[in-house]
Design goal:
Blueprint: E1 2-6, H1 11-22, E2 26-31, E3 46-49, H2 55-62, E4 69-72, H3 79-84, H4 86-106, E5 111-115, H5 141-160, E6 163-169, E7 171-173, H6 191-199, E8 206-209, E9 221-222, E10 224-226, H7 227-240, E11 246-250, E12 256-257, H8 258-269, E13 275-278, E14 287-288, H9 293-299, H10 308-321
Parallel strand pairs: 1-2, 1-4, 2-3, 4-5, 5-6, 6-11, 7-10, 8-13, 9-14
Antiparallel strand pairs: 9-12
Helix pairs in contact: 1-7, 2-4, 4-5, 6-8, 6-10, 8-10
């Protein structure tokens, strides 16, 4: 089958492209390359350098052929940045998704898998793990923009029959075990690659934002899910939305604190990680851990890379092999 992947040159999107190709599907990627990399994609993948903010250009790609489904990853995704520039996040995330959904409805696309976020649950402190039935209380404009898209998909399903899967995943991490793709953000903001680079001496001491949270060691606790396991969940979700729409949380179900991530990098790399405490970041909850039981029961999904050391090992291997990311 042929699938359209928006944001397919980004971190999670590129791994989903590899998963689709490995499963024997044809893939077309739409990406404006604002944060993605053409080098993250195999040379023979059909690629459209298109911005979803351009409704006419988006319509042209979507109408160019018949799609078995669309996987939508394209978005801005930094919680802290959304707190300082919220209108940019609403424009870039919400309007681009609206243009895509409108084109899908117009061209009779029946299935869309949406890359949502655990930031929907980033409001007041709550107990973990978090199920899909938890109250949605976004703690940032980023989370709010993703929830707005979920509501559009809800009504597009009810009125037009567009079946969707909203995948609310937690912290994507790691790299393709075959070394075909990895994490290359510019600037890099994710904890695991930053910690690895600090251990390798490629950056100054790591700043640990908040050491006074009500957690077991005072640092934030997050549920890390390997990016290949995330990609697998997207493919499984496609099979669930032939006749209905779904929403799933995706995570390992166990959380690791920031200090535990540092300790993992030290174990895996054999190097010390220089770090220093820093003030909390606005919008960061103390704990985000997923209850993925619904996804597991309905799709048979289970993470292959469940332990933090497994995740760190693939990320470390990719960063050592690609010191300049996709420019290496």
């Amino acid at each position: 089958m042929r699938y359209l992947v928006t944001g397919g040159a980004g971190f999670v999107g590129s791994h989903a492209v590899l998963a689709l190709l490995d499963a024997g599907h044809d893939v077309t990627v739409l990406d404006n390359l604002s944060t993605g990399h053409r080098g993250a994609l195999p040379d023979d993948v059909e690629f459209h350098h298109t911005d979803l903010l351009d409704a006419d250009a988006t319509e042209k790609v979507v109408s160019s052929r018949s799609w078995a489904g669309v996987l939508h990853f394209a978005a801005l995704s930094l919680v802290g940045e959304s707190m300082t520039d919220p209108l940019r996040y609403f424009r870039q995330n919400y309007l681009t998704a609206l243009n895509l959904i409108q084109a899908c409805v117009k061209n009779d696309v029946s299935k869309l898998v949406f890359s949502s976020t655990a930031a929907l649950f980033g409001g007041p402190e709550r107990s973990a793990p978090i199920p899909e039935t938890a109250d949605v209380q976004p703690g940032s404009p980023y989370g709010e923009s993703k929830y707005m898209i979920e509501r559009v998909l809800h009504w597009a399903g009810n009125i037009y029959g567009l079946h969707s899967a909203c995948l609310r995943y937690f912290n994507a991490a790691g790299a393709d075990s075959q070394g075909r793709a990895g994490e290359d953000h510019r600037p890099e903001t994710h904890l695991i690659p930053l910690t690895i680079d600090a251990a390798l001496g490629r950056r100054p001491a790591l700043k640990l934002f908040g050491t006074d949270y009500p957690t077991r060691d005072g640092s934030c606790v997050r549920d890390y899910v390997h990016v290949t396991d995330l990609a697998d969940a997207h493919l499984r979700a496609l099979d669930q939305i032939n006749e209905r729409s779904v929403a799933y949380n995706i995570g390992n179900g166990q959380g690791y604190s920031n200090l535990e991530v540092i300790q993992s990098v030290e174990r895996v790399s054999g190097r010390k990680v220089p770090w220093e405490p820093a003030p909390r970041r606005q919008g960061d909850p103390a704990m985000l851990v997923a209850d993925s039981q619904t996804l597991r029961e309905e799709t048979g999904w289970t993470p292959r890379f469940a332990e933090i050391d497994q995740i760190v090992e693939t990320a470390l291997r990719w960063r050592v092999a690609h010191p300049e990311g996709y420019n290496s």
